[in-house]
Amino acid sequence: MSKIKFQGNASGTGTTTFQSANTSSNTTFTLPGTDGTNGQVLTTDGSGNLTFGAAGGSGTVTTVSVVSANGLAGSVANASTTPAITLTTSITGVLKGNGTAISAATAGTDYVAPSGALGTPSSGTLSSCTVDGTNKVGYIGAPQSTNTTVAASDAGKHIYFTGGSTATLTVNTNSTTAIDVGTVILVVNNNSGNLTISGAGVTFQLANGATGNRTVATKGMATMLKVATDTWYVSGAGVT
User: Nearest 5°: phi and psi at 118?
Assistant: First the structure.
């Protein structure tokens, strides 16, 4: 502990010298005020120089600088300002922390980046979502389609023909219209005549029957299941 020594002549007159027992470094002494609180602060600089100053009181810290460390540099302002923290270090994207430092995170290493934007639950469309990492999310039901040529968007739907006589449902090869193996499509023929399911280069296998174009009689319904690149199994009431 540093000490202050008061030296003067025997009569108590002359110059008073303050000497710190620790002269090798700065030393601060707080002298009590008349009301018992901290009054003055006496500081030595290790070279015999003494400085009086007022003791610390109340006040407001407006800005504190943040040194360039732990991945960030900038300033911290008091809570009454907006923003409370201003950074001068440029870090974009998702940030990561390791307990002592902050840095930019790497997609694919620190987090899985989404392949596309997700819509809002009330109106957005989720595409390429799966239930198990492979199989796409399906419908609860079979929404209606009126396509006369099968599209990839018809997966899980029923294609409805009505109000006409004969009609044809065309199925393109996978090289023309890519449709996942395992896709199921229902075909409902509410026309007054037969409906033909056909497509050049595509095999239509009648369940427990021959291959070739399929015919769905009026008021009949067919289930189409894609089992290979250009092969569909077809079955149902009124299907030949």
Answer: -100, 135
What's the pLDDT tens digit per position in 116-125?
665 565 666 6
Architecture of domain 144-239: Sandwich (2.60)
Q: Report yes or no: 148 and 168 within 8 Å, Cβ to Cβ.
A: yes
Residue 153 — φ and ψ, nearest 5°?
-70, -10
Q: What is the pLDDT of residues 5-23, one digit of tens each?
A: 544 444 444 444 445 455 5
Q: What are the structural domain ranges in the chain? A: 4-54, 60-91, 144-239
Q: Is 29 helix (H, G, I), strand (E, B) or coil?
A: strand
| CB-CB contact of 239 with 219 (8 Å) | no
200-237: pLDDT as tens digits: 999 999 999 999 999 999 999 999 999 999 999 999 99
Q: What's CA 161's distance to the chain center, in Å?
A: 44
